[in-house]
Write a structure and sequence with these properties.
By secondary structure, the chain is mostly helical.
């Protein structure tokens, strides 16, 4: 159980860290939808979503490996669903930046 919590926590903190770092580097007087923040705009849109998507894929792989080896797999499956919900939340926030 501890390994699963560390995995999920690392994935979520990495996604939030990239999001905060990109938002902190926006030049002064520049909105996220302006052309002067195009790099940060792309990072905010795609990086956290990509990190969470890779996290979901990794948790799904661990689920399949545990199931195949006869180990308790339901906890990893719960991690997959938790990361999927986080992915949907981050995608909805990124969609707000896109339509901004």
């Amino acid at each position: 159980m501890r390994n699963i919590a560390i995995y999920v926590g690392t994935v979520v903190l990495a996604a939030i860290g990239v999001l905060v770092a990109a938002a902190a580097t926006i030049p002064d007087g520049c909105a996220i939808t302006d052309a002067c923040a195009s790099t940060q705009h792309a990072i905010i849109l795609f990086a956290p979503v990509g990190i969470l998507l890779l996290g979901v894929a990794g948790a799904a792989a661990f689920t399949i490996w545990c199931w195949r080896d006869g180990i308790e797999w339901r906890r990893w499956f719960g991690a997959v669903w938790f990361l999927l919900v986080m992915l949907l939340l981050v995608m909805s926030m990124a969609g707000g930046v896109l339509t901004g």
